[in-house]
Amino acid sequence: MRGRPARWDAARRWSGRIAPFALLAAAAAVALAAGGGDDPVAVLADGQRLTVAVHLVEEPRPGPFGWSVEVVVAEGPHAGVRLLARLPRDAGFDFDELPGSGRADAAAAWQGAEARLDGRFDAVRGGQGGPAAAPVPRRFDLAGHLRAHGIAGELHVDRAVATGSRRGGWRGTVDGIRARALDAIGAGLPADRAALARGMVLGADDDLPPTVREDFRASGLAHLTAASGQNVMLLVALAVPALAALGLGGRARLVALLTLIALYVPLAGAEAPIQRAGVMAAAGLVATLAARPASRWYALALAAAATLAANPQAWRQPGWQLSFAAVAGILVAAGPIRRRLGGLPVALAEGVALTVAATAATAPLVALHFGEVSAVSLPANVAALALVAPIMWLGTLRGALAQLASGDLAPPASWADALLVAALGPLLAGMARIAALFADLPGATARVAIGGPLELALAYVAIATVALALRHLVDRGADRRTVAVARLRRLPRGRRVALAGCMAAALALGAAHTLGPDPPPATLTVSFLDVGQGDATLVQHPDGSAVLFDGGPPEGGVLGLLRRAGVRRLSALVLTHASRDHHGGLLEVVRALPVDLVLDGGDGTRDRSYRAVLGAVRARGTPVRAALAPLAVTAGGVTIDVLSPRPRPPGPPPEDPNPRAVVAVVAADGFRLLLSGDAESDALAPLALPRVDAIKAPHHGSADPGLPEILATLRPSVAAIPVGPNSYGHPAPSTVAALRRAGVATWRTDLHGTIRLAVERGRLTVDPERGDAVAVGP
Q1: Residue 738 CB: number of other CB atoms within 10 A?
Q2: What are the sequence ranges of the domains in the chain?
Q3: How far, in Å, are 276, 648, 656 from residue 653 at the CA level?
């Protein structure tokens, strides 16, 4: 009898240890039984015609041929089925007709809006999704992505009509709360800062400018713009003292916190990471309510069970895998790391430990899914630590104020909101600056090839081996560090201050050298920027002047490429014509950089996105001149000679803007370059073309029968073809063959990345981003 309590206690301890893993195994079994290895929804036939009312789940995403948007069927036998709707530009659907779509936070206006779609259903096809053995860079597995998110397939829409209604019920209530919160969080802030605030507070990152998105990805800070466990933790930390100040008892506070978490999860998008965070937080709060110590591993297993029960395919999502890997890494390694940082302030040691553990635990999965990792993630996250919580709290308070008032805020609330936005603006600017600084560092991202589960396991074994070795070295050096600190403390106060000053000066000089903007190139440099299927050419003179022709599509990230090239001001900006893949990326450029002169090649276009660029230019007071021949402009050491187009008679602009794209010769220091936008030989042949040293292949290298005659006139030594993945067949084999027969050394941005052409003493050197530098005779 005496031994029974001891055996009972031992059994309880062992059951407590194995319970989380038993629960996780049970969750996996439930997921498989529910169809974890099958297609998500099998209620629609492949090729079936559908006419359905749907609710939009997200902001429509523009593409070269139309829009794509996730929707859920609102009624009928297929109610609740999720689809990816593909809407061509001629489907008759105007997104401006949706209620509230004129607001800056477009995602809030679109979410929950109702539309009636008519089209053809295509079921999910392809591989099983998730990791697959493939070389880097990895191809995007659309079928796997759709399965993982519970989407039945694609609906290719022939006709779409906005009904003007919105969904009701509790989801409609959540839509309204989210819309008011997103509107309030970004109100009064510049567009890029507002988008960053909405992303950090509620995970609504759809409106982030491409360059800001790229900066956060390259610096390893992308997780800050997606709702995750950090958001839930900070929300609870903000709510606890507020609830205590209201005089609520312990049980009432816990119930209020559970309610707040239950509301925040759908507000933040209800994706797998935020679901995991909500379940774990709720489990911890319930354990507190029961006055029992919370098992973090048990809470993690419970979160896995809940997310898999909600969506058995969730485990396929990279976000699900990364979220659970990060938490597991924190549970395993954060404590030991924190204990070995005992010399640091407690808050800093805690933040560094969490960052190191999560970064190490997720790096192999990031490499597996995305083919590259951020080499600066750790220092960037440490640098951002102090800004994350204030941004989250201030943004949350702004969103909460919006729920307390209908229409305009009452004066006290309005004054409070003004104080919040005044504090939030500089914090967001600092966060964006940190991301940009680390993203701009040489080697900020590294390509890492992890092809499948075996290599993934080996990567984790390698990380664990390195971690154990480092722990051994740190522990061995503990005594020596203690002696060194003691000796430092025995030094006279004046020497310690002088030593600290020297170290601070050295660090400041090193940071200024490393993080400061690049100087202008020492030689004349032409960069054909890799913006994907688009066009952007940068000319930089040693005197510091810089001229940009076009900016590629919005997703091309031209602003980041300009910053990496050391451009902080443009002497001239030339918009060759109205085309999304030429002018689409320029809106963020003209908002971010000073521009001395803009040459407008719009030819009277009515394209709204093009006119938005000109509107932003004029709002900054930048001079604008029509790019019509004959016109010669000097920008620093660079001369721009516009050869075409000539003025046209009054009337509406031509339907095809390509033949009237700006054709110009850029000259500097005896070097001449022909840039012709999308104008082909039909537009070039009538012009008085001079001999040049280099050309940008017209219209992304499209088929052009007259190109050989144009090359015979120009006689260039170098050609660059700006091109990305496309369905047009660019560059055409006939164009590549014509350049080869003419003896023109040719590079392509889709194969070689950004192509830099340096000119020094009449000698041309081509230095592609991917490949070796080559000297080319004039």
Answers
A1: 24
A2: 49-167, 477-515, 524-776
A3: 54, 9, 9
Residue 540 CA to residue 549 CA, distance in Å, equals 12
Residue 638 buriedness (CB in 10 A; 0-12 / 13-18 / 19+): buried
| Nearest Cα residue to 31 out of 150, 209, 113 | 150
Tokens for 376, please give them: 């600066």
* Phi and psi at residue 513, to the nearest 5°: -70, -40
What is the average pLDDT value for the chain, to the nearest integer?
Answer: 80
Taking the C-alpha atoms of residue 559 and residue 537, their distance in angstroms, rounded to an integer, is 12
Percentage above 70 pLDDT, the chain: 79
Cβ pair 119, 57 in contact under 8 A: no
Supply the Cα-derived Rg of the chain in whole angstroms: 29
Other CB atoms within a 10 A radius of the CB of residue 433 amount to 13
Eight-class DSSP state of 315: G
Find out whether 519 and 567 touch, Cβ atoms under 8 Å. Answer: no
**Both structure tokens of 661:** 């794209």
Cα gap 155→149, rounded to integer Å: 16
Burial (CB count within 10 angstroms: exposed 0-12, middle 13-18, buried 19+), residue 479: exposed
Which residue shows structure tokens 């023109």? 744
Residue whose C-alpha is closest to residue 315's, from 18, 37, 33:
37
Q: Which two tokens stand for residue 392?
A: 């989250």
Contact (Cβ atoms closer than 8 angstroms) between residue 536 and residue 550: yes
Would you tell me how many other CB atoms lie within 10 Å of the CB of residue 77?
9
Is the whole-model pTM more than 0.70?
no
Superfamily of domain 524-776: Ribonuclease Z/Hydroxyacylglutathione hydrolase-like (3.60.15.10)
Residue 187: pLDDT above 50?
yes
Could you tell me what percent of the chain has a pLDDT over 90?
26
Question: 73 and 53 in contact (C-beta within 8 Å)?
Answer: yes
Q: Which helix (H) or strand (E) holds 755?
A: strand 755-760
Q: How high is the pLDDT of residue 651?
A: 85
Which tens digits make up the pLDDT trace of 27-84? 555 544 544 444 444 567 778 898 889 988 877 776 656 678 888 898 888 888 888 8
* CB atoms inside a 10 Å sphere around CB 310: 13
Token couple for 696: 């940008």
C-alpha separations of 753 from 391, 531, 533, 573, 760 in Å? 36, 9, 12, 22, 22
Kindly report whether the peptide bond that precedes residue 273 is cis, defined as omega within 30 degrees of 0: no
Amino acid at 601: G
List the 638-644 sheet strands across, edge first: 631-635, 638-644, 663-668, 671-675, 694-696, 718-721, 745-748
**Structure tokens given for 103:** 């607001």
Which of 132-146, 215-229, 496-510, 698-712 is predicted least confidently? 132-146
Please name the helix (run of DSSP H) or strand (run of DSSP E) that holds residue 748, with its range, or none. Answer: strand 745-748
CA–CA separation, 700 and 535 (whole Å): 8
Cis preceding-peptide flag for 77 (omega within 30 of 0): no
Report the first-to-last Cα separation within the chain, whole angstroms. Answer: 99
Helix (H/G/I), strand (E/B), else coil: 754: coil
For residue 325, the tally of other CB atoms under 10 A from its CB is 19
Residue 170 has pLDDT above 80, yes or no: no
Structure tokens of 4? 């029974």
